[in-house]
Queue: 2 jobs
Job 1
Amino acid sequence: MSLKMSRRGFVKATAAATASTLLLGSQAATAFADDAAEGAKATSSDDVKIIPSACRQCYGRCALFGHVKDGRLTKIEGNPDLFSEGTLCGRAFAIPQELYNPLRVRYPQKRVGEKGSGQWKRITWEEAYQEAADRYTEIGEKYGWHTIAHQYGTGRDMLQFQAINKLWLELGSTATFGVGNLCWVGSYFTSQRLYGDETQYTGWDGNNTDCILIWCRQERSRGYYDWLTVKRAQERGAKVICVDPRYTCTASKADLWLPIRPGSDMALVLAFINEIIHSDKCANDFARFYTNAPFFIDEEGTGYQLRESMIKEGGNEELYPAWDEAHDQLIFWSGDWQNKQGVGGPKAFQWLDAEGNIVADAKPALSGSREINGKTYRTSWDILVEHVTPWTIERAAEFCELPEDKIREAIQTYIDASPHACFCRGQKVEFSINTSGISQAFTIMMALAGNFDSKGGQNIGREPATGYDSFMFDVVPNKEGRMGKRRMETAKNIKKLSVCQNTGYQQILVADDATGELRETTQNSGGQVIYGQQGGFGAATTKAMAKGDPFQIHGYWQQTSEPILSIEGGHEIIEGFKNLDFFVNVDIYMTPSGELADIILPAAHPNEVDRVEWAHSGHGYPTSHTYLIRQPFHEPLGECKDDMDICFEFAKYMDVDMYWKDKYEFFDYMVKGPETLPPQLSCANFEEFRERISVTGVEMATVKQAPKYETGFMRKTSDFRPGFNTMYRGNKMGSVYRFPGTKTPDGKVIPAHPQSDNGKMEMWSEDLLLYGNGPLPLYIEPPITPLARPDLLEDFPYTLITGGRSHAFFHTEYRNSPWMREVHMFPTVDINPATAAEHGIAQDDWVWIETYVDKIRQRANLTEAIKPGMIHVEHDWWFPEREATDDLHGAIDSNCNVLFENNGPYDPAVGTDNYGGLCKIYKAEEGAPKNICMTEEDLKIFLPMSADAIASDDQADGVRQVTVKGGAK
């Protein structure tokens, strides 16, 4: 079979489908994977199976149907009856092109030539597993298990991620390149430690809102149904504010667009907080009764929140002093909900007087200093107010290069709409060395505007239908004491086993609160944490592999990931991979990284496996409350296996206790839920769930007619008391690198840190203080900007930004899809026509983008959507049509991440690096890179293989490389 739809036909069909789904909402879009004779009329045939499933081409997980004839997917259409309302994008249409792609790995492969030679031979699964087990065991016993790194790609299949991570944590691996620390972990990590969940991506209630504040998020780049929510909100009269340096689709539909200077976001958020705090809409009662705002801070001593143990000999570290306005007395908040310090039981999460009696009508003071035992203490509220007050609209306008009146209008619109204003943000805000800080600031902004768990505001605790989420995969066995001995020993000794050992202290530019002037200061890093495991991040793991700093990485297991393209410093990553003693790569295709592996294990496509699709990233109700089935359209091709099955199978070779017998035992647990779950939300097992297709939960704030922090549902995993889930704080979920007793460069010794698991949301954050960010969000200038590096401007005058989303791709994926490449053939740099004219650059010219680090080639797109003096380049580009020996399938030529150093500074908590800077741009007289697809005709090399062709290709000598060698002129 072959595709016989022209580019014009595909674009025309896509346009029609998009128009129908966006305008009508209920019409299903369709795409054909085979020619008309074999597929177009198959929908009415008795031998066609129509299988409900989900798309995982991005995070949208849109509900769809697959039409299968003779064991082959022939047609995709949207499911109009579920949350995605029948909408699909081109990536979903292209699923058949992935399934039957000629570059797909269908059998295990072993490299037989030099690394990067493209020479492979087929082996059996048993041979692959056994060699991997032998080699990893040899490395672990000789060098230590911490010298084996592991890596997982985009976390949109969270169940798969959990299996990969558990396998390798049990084996004692610590280092990863990370993935979410590039785009999501900053928000999640910070939100967990401030109040116990994440709402910046998933919690916005667009269905009932009066205002949607969209921050650097392209709503139509994934999950088109999100845009339907925005559109309907506007039709109801809601205002949409877009903050984005580029004039995106979202900006074009917004009521107000703020084209912010890249990297200056914190100045604008602090101005929002300042205006909110000084408005009559500020949620003072929320701050008083549900946050640590009334707590006194030991500013001159430990730097922590004051405890009774700090002011009284024999005092209790679970008691937090504050002043009671109602009775003019010192009172103490009891955080001892586990009754470890004798003030739990009925006294837990209560205000107590000095004698330990409950003060039921206490009114803790937000403001005011108090002298206790000769020392003066301020409330964290006063410290916050003092911190944000200088961040005026005028200062924000200067930092952000925005008109004052536009900032004032945006802030006032958000305040006026509160508590029915919602916020959602994109990942580009995370691409900074201050991602944890900016996430903290967004949290404070939403909370003080009164938008936590309000109609039209933020749903602050994700509520999957059964109440369980993917993290239960690891939480359940750990609760039952089934954490392996090696994993426990690794955690105890993480300080000397982490690749983050030498990333500690770094020079940054911080804006002085009083004056706004940038000053250089030393940031005391806390040790980067990925999903609670202090193991590593891109730059630290790269240094360990390539340079042996702080120790040499010898082994590596990679699954569904491509760090050469996705992580800064691609050249050094290649060097590191070449240094490895042993490397296994699990993937669907041959990739640049895979060509440097020793063994390739063939992964099944997402639509060849069973999954419980868990709501994650970017969607409000009902999407964020819905479990959805993703079931296979047919068995995996060749000998491909589900990523989860690979983990379970290899665990047996490595004698790892995964706790769950297999994925289905975990799926059964997920869909059944706790005993208290209403029957309509529970399935007896996965097979019953398969029959139901999806289950949508409820919003407890709506059911109880009160926010979850008032009714106990924020603490559903512990005691159901009013308050917030604070179990993630401190050392429980991963070691804090700044251990008590550690001496900082300024000579200060880190004092002992009592756990702050006290049920209060922390706006002033003890955890972020420990991790090195500081207790309150700081304005930190990115390291390579005109303000930070004026010395570079003569040679590199333009601001460089990266990472804008494409409708055709998802990060490194789909460059081998003929339809997606027809829609978006080349890597594209956006440049203002005025800037282009200065350099004689015309539309579609190939140009060089050069920084002080390296240079790449992309094709020019002249557009007024970007300011003069600013350049935007696309990320994660490679050319699968090029051979392995041709620059690892063209992994460097157009890869924007080689333009940046990986020497820091980094976000001190999660390790995010800087993905922007300064550049120059000039015409590439040599034109396009060699050996890439240039025309529709060239793209035919990627057309799906017929069933007969697949059956006859046993890949005995590796995966057949399709090329257009010499195609670029």
Job 2
Amino acid sequence: MQTPADPQDRHEYPSHWEADVVLRDGGTARIRPITVDDADRLVSFYEQVSDESKYYRFFAPYPRLSAKDVHRFTHHDFVDRVGLAATIGGEFIATVRYDRIGPDGTPASAPADEAEVAFLVQDAHQGRGVASALLEHIAAVARERGIRRFAAEVLPANSKMIKVFTDAGYTQQRSFEDGVVRLEFDLEPTDRSLAVQRAREQRAEARSVRRLLAPGSVAVIGVGRAPGGVGRSVLGNLRDAGFTGRLHAVNQAFPDDLKEIDGVPAHRSVRDIDGPVDLAVVAVPAEHVPEVVTECGEHGVQGLVVLAAGYAESGPDGRERQRALVRRARTYGMRIIGPNAFGIINTADDVRLNASLAPEMPRPGRIGLFAQSGAIGIALLSRLHRRGGGVTGTTGVSTFVSSGNRADVSGNDVLQYWYDDPETDVVLMYLESIGNPRKFTRLARRTGTAKPLVVVQGAGAPPGHAVRATRLPHATVSALLRQAGVIRVDTITELVDAGLLLARQPLPAGPRVAILGNSESLGLLTYDRCLAEGLRPARPLDLTTRATAGDFHRALAQALADESCDAVVVTAIPTIGEGAVGDAELAEALRSAAEEVPGKPVLVVHVELGGLAEALSAAGRTAPQAGTSAPGTGGGAHLPPLSASLERGDPHRPAERLPTAVPAKLPVSHPYSRLIPAYPAAERAVRALAEAVKYGQWRREAADPGKVPGYDDIDERGAARLIGALLERGEGLTIGVEETCRLLGRYGIDVHRALPAPTPDAAVGAARALGYPVALKATAPHLRHRADLGGVRLDLADEEQLRRAYDELSELYGTPEELRPVVQRMAPRGVDTVVRAVIDPAAGAVVSFGLAGAASQLLGDMAHRLVPVTDRDATSLVRSIRTAPLLFGWRGSAPVDTPALEELLLRVSRLVDDHPEVVAVTLEPVVVARQGVSVLGATVRLAPPPVRDDLGPRTLPAY
């Protein structure tokens, strides 16, 4: 195919096509357009491609590129001829190009919408998913340039390339002619292509994190010769944790004759290390980091943990330094934890990695922990590690990541890893900011269907965090996270409390709670807290202070066997005197009873006295023996080690765990090995249980999320034409009343017309046109939607009443020019509500609902759902506000037509989902009557749609 030899002058260089991507094996590459300056790189790249790959590309032996070929493959107009390259270290590893063609297969320009596409991947990088990533990006470029269909000719023996096309998920056709397979496929994304893209994204990002958390070799760069210092401390932590891989100490100031430091091989540079280095912990000052990154990249290091501060958290200069750090690392295909990071930990026996500033290795367990803040990370690790208020055995930490400024690896990446990590059952995250809320919500929803995700979110982003601006209040973002299955808590104490419950207890099947114990007052306090948290507690069973361990055992076993019970809270106070039950005996009684019915969660609330913590901790330091007798049967009991004792005097200490009795032959993962969490206060136990109940309900509902209904009367194309015509007037505008009614009418939303009434005669004419009875309203900004101020007159049955009302409003509030009166046909009486939709640049499209007036404006009683809203979402949305009883017959009033209201919400959701140019919709008031709804006021704002990176090709955040 011949291409013009003139310079590429049709479009300027499209820098927005540049992107960093994570490849299948977890490494990164940069994708960018090919330009005239790439001739030497292209020739060098082609020389490293095997003869077989060249044959597959050109269908004939093609040992070298001619000058004409080089010109053709580097000169593009970025419209009809486009070439992209994947690069590592600035050198090409793969290329792709398309050429627009007409119906006869010859070169063409728009409006032709088909193009031929061809790839070439260096043999050393085949199998890394490079071609799949390039296909996503070249398809996005083609769609932007008006190309809707790709055609590719492939030799039948080139099975790898055929698989790239067939696995992409696009709608395609295949034919075979003259010994060549011809593939044609539409570029419009499909549900399958999007699913394929996201599955590849998950695998690639998970592997990139796995390479950091499970390295075969680690180099600590910046190890001082004298004890102390950050580098020396990290090296000691790695060594003391028993890291199973190869460990190296690096410092350019080491003397030439220094071979070891603390028993670890010493080197002056990473380049001097014989063999690969998978992870480098960078503990040098910020001004020396660029040099270190270059050395690591040239040596083939896969990832970096940058502990140094002095980056974006320090101001504009530091922010630019951080950008340069990320760009340099990505040039070599490396990923970064940090900068300003606390480090990473992996407790797996075959890894034993403590590449952090934590002086002790946490106990291994099933909790994945992520903290952006180093200080919070220290606090959480300390709480989860200390015996006096931490976790032992199988409820410790699986992996820990403190991302610092999260310039590269973020909570989203780590969530991708934990999603299918078999060593992690519960995810705890402390997030000071969410860089990509739309993606986080999607990942959280998917993760939540497999394992609990508990999150504490700070109210504001600290310096150093790149965060997209959001117009939504913090409470709204929290509500949207809950909708996605996130267990949203307010403090790190609640984070640990909920996490420990979820780590080793089954999810409750409902909100019904049994309460039993030896303290009537503590039982009543627990009962009150259950009511406050929306649970359904039964009256507490008081076993009295004379209760024995056997009494606890029988009462708990009976409660668990009761079908009307979903969870049990045991309250216990220590007793003294003759016959008092011992702490160890009580612990064994509860464990053995819970073992008999393992499908329901059990929590313990106990009040400690002096010495109780020590007694609980020391009560059982021998492993349980098979055949242990239940309390009260006369058999001896050997107790397993207790998980932790309570910290006396600290109201914020995390919950301890009391292990249940485990038969000796059962594996740790067996359900009988569940540990019983114990809490020092009723409110903490009940709050954790309430979160588990809500999460369990979400899990059950997530199995059947509902559907987005279709409506035959929706005119999507007509709405698109109207929107396009309106946007030609400007970049962003609030459209007029008539256009608003026309647009909403395309989606079956009827707005009651409001006719202007600048004079009494005009008001009478409007009323005749609409038909009596009518309403007269002042629409001035200070009176709009303020019926309490008297700017509305309702049920005006004739001309006399209308003129009298007009005069009254003029006398009370000013001239018609000040009032801006309108006349509107009366709607049936009902409940006034408000429906809104907004396209938030961070969270995406959101539909909100509440009652009009003080409930929503003063009390903020609004509920929110992400678009697209399903029928189940609409049903729950209407019922989620605190004032919802007003819709369902509160105090004898007539219930209103909530199905019609739900349909209205679904239609608004469809409008903003189908047309991202509709950036804001407000329907107020919406009167919900006994039969039907009436939309009395509506405003719509249009603007060019915001960029949606979640629907485009896979990319890392730009720097």
